[in-house]
Amino acid sequence: MSSVLEIRNLHVSINDRPILRGVNLIVPQGEVHALMGPNGTGKSTLAYTLMGHPGYQATAGEVLFKGQNLLELKPDARSRLGVFLAFQYPVAIPGVSVANFLRTAINARRRTLNTQDKGIPVPEFRKLLRTKMELLQMPSDFAGRYLNDGFSGGEKKRAEILQMAVLEPELAILDETDSGLDIDALRIVSEGVNALAGPSLGILLITHYQRILNYIKPDVVHVMYGGKIVESGGPELALTLEEHGYDWVKERHPSEV
Amino acid sequence: MSASDTKALEELGSYKYGFRDPEDYFYRSGKGLSRGVVEAISAQKGEPDWMREYRLKALEHFLKRPVPTWGPDLSGLDFNEIYYYIRPSERTGASWDEVPDTIKKTFDRLGIPEAERKFLAGVGAQYESEMVYHSIQENLSKLGVIFLSSDDGLKQHPDVFRQYFGTVIPATDNKFAAINSACWSGGSFVYVPKGVKVDLPLQAYFRLNTQSMGQFERTLIIADEGSQVHYVEGCTAPIYSKDSFHSGVIEIIVMPGARVRYTTIQNWSTNVYNLVTQRAVVHEGATMEWVDANLGSKVTMKYPSCYLVGKGAHGEILSMAFAGPGQHQDAGGKVIHAAPYTTSKVTSKSISKGGGRASYRGLLKVYKGAHGSKSNVVCDALLIDPQARTDTYPTIEIDEDDVSVGHEATVSKVGEEQLFYLTSRGLSAEEATTMVVSGFIEPLVKELPMEYAIEMNRLIQMQMAGSVG
């Protein structure tokens, strides 16, 4: 079964206010697609909708993934199907350690495959976590800290990619993973993403700066504007945007304002 | 779905300890309370006269005193419908073989003998009114550590017992201390000699079996100078349509430089009125810690207290309450600073769901002359759903200028963004809510010995089962 993401004519509202107005997008397995665009055009709305946030109502369209319409599934079912969202603003869960949380998440997946599953053995889990944390150059005490509680901006983003590394999704949506990162943290996070990229993973990388694309090379670049995808092209499209700014998009698509 | 799945689903969210045994007793008093009942209890025990007189005086006080109305609704508690004394067997066993089979089986199901073998220094098991089992590791008794039922404590160590009994919580302290003083039976008598440190916990386990039973255990702990001990109590009962009543009194004397921790994991069935008075007198340089977790019962009123009477004494109260549908947990703590440089810390965590009500009720008192004292009180409440309710009743009385006192209270709800975040990682809504709750009480759970921490997390999972639609 192919795990290509196919979005068809997706319309989404928040509190009855339309935000997405007919998004069409295909992200094949194994490819990295960048989604760019100015603030407030609906990029994060698309990310939340793909993951199933209850506050976002899809009023029309379909989102197909592994033969299912994602819109009909709850967030946990989407996750277990292989969808992952790296949050722009991850929330704190005080009192729950990174390790405890990840073990629970892994076990939730294992139980989907086998209801009798007794959970990942502790030594196996420790080894897995250590390997993934080394990949992201995280100190070992990180596993014992409470999830996102008092994390710096950079730690939060790294923790998101750590979760992605441990949960091994087939579709990863990275919502402005580059925002708030200094240049070293950006490099580490990007290296982490690159290490995970491969033939079995599709990546939708949401950003409004070209900067991260120096580290993570997209196969395709899309531009969102006014709740639609208005431009698609190769990596050179990002450079055009960098050079001309988003005014260039606005001039080419005046009717979408 | 397999048969075992179906069974597992049925058990999920149900009260696991609700089973009951047939009633076959050595002695049972009639229903209701009278002079005759109190005299019969005393006679059954073959007590000295002073104790019989003490009981009868306490009874008078109980009868005179009104039911308190400042807290939870106690109107459903009918004192005439209660059995005040049931003696399940003739004597307290020092080995499990001496315990009657049905009762032994009950404690087996509750995992007590197994826990004793694995990680406890001593165990007492109370069934209805009496301790049916009491045992301590031989090496500790050789060091002079005493761990007996309170009845045996009175018989075997009459002088020490009389010296301290009722000195921390007099019979006239409150209505429920009075009824306990009149009807007390069972509980533990603990004495730790000077300088002796008991590394593993001593555990007492309390079980109610009969419908409409009243259990009035009485515990007296004396930690002599520089000694150290951790006492743990657990409690369960079957589910009946008629309410039962548990009213314990726990008195603790922490001598200079000693350290006592008293941990409760209260998991009564939801038809039990749990009205407990527990208090410690803490002398110079000594430390008292209450770790109090209340998950079960219909109504709980419990405010573990530290009376810091010696210079530099330290008291800590870590209180956790979980109120589900139909439950009212009125918990908290009291700290009295009555000497200079005394310090205290109160942390309260309450969780309510499905119409359950959790209240924090606390008193912080600093007397004139307790200069250089410090106290910090933190109360956090977590609401699982819109039907849940929480209240905070903090009282702070400071009669000394040179003190440092902090108080903060927060109320939070399990947030939609937290749930979305956790479910986006594959956790079901129920698992996600449970995880937020577990995180919330983590500061308390991490204070528990590992075996109890695991048990506590499991109890929380059971409480949370079925809470998300």
* Ends apart, CA distance between termini of chain B: 20 Å
Q: H/E series of chain A, N to C?
A: EEEHEEHEHHHEHEEEHH
CATH fold descriptor of chain A: Rossmann fold
Overall average residue pLDDT of chain B: 91
Helix content of chain A: 25-40%
Overall tally of domains of chain B: 2
Rg measurement of chain A, Å: 18 Å
Please compute the radius of gyration of chain B using only Cα atoms: 22 Å
In total, the number of strands of chain B is: 24
Largest interface: A-B, 30 and 25 residues
**Annotation field: number of helices of chain B:** 12
What profile does the largest beta sheet of chain A have? 6 strands, mixed
Head-to-tail CA distance between termini of chain A: 39 Å
Number of domains of chain A: 1
Please give the order of strands in the largest beta sheet of chain A.
Answer: 6-7-8-3-9-10
Structural class of chain B: alpha/beta
Count of β-strands of chain A: 10
Question: Nutshell version of this structure?
Answer:
Chain A is of the alpha/beta class and 257 residues long. Chain A is built from eight helices and ten strands. In chain A, the strands form two sheets. Chain A has a six-stranded mixed beta sheet with strand order 6-7-8-3-9-10, sandwiched between helices. Chain A has a four-stranded antiparallel beta sheet with strand order 2-1-4-5.
